[in-house]
Write a structure and sequence with these properties.
Layout lengths: L8 H14 L6 H10 L5 H15 L8 H4 L1
């Protein structure tokens, strides 16, 4: 068993930003920060789940997705 430290806030924001860009989603910077700050557990899996949900939301709403819509 290997213990991994939680990701730093900066790393979390960077990961979220990269995943959003790779999926060509258009979101406001506040959305990236909110997801990075509110992901559960400090790991990548909850962040990826949130980006997956954003992708579904983007199919229903015109860009950019903003914080009032996402929260």
């Amino acid at each position: 068993v290997v213990h991994l430290e939680p990701l730093s806030p900066r790393s979390r924001r960077r990961m979220v930003h990269q995943w959003i860009e790779s999926r060509r989603l258009h979101v406001t910077p506040a959305v990236i920060h909110w997801i990075a700050d509110h992901g559960q557990g400090g790991g990548a899996r909850p962040l990826l789940g949130a980006v997956n949900q954003l992708e579904q939301l983007a199919r229903l709403h015109p860009p950019p997705l903003d914080l009032p819509l996402v929260t």
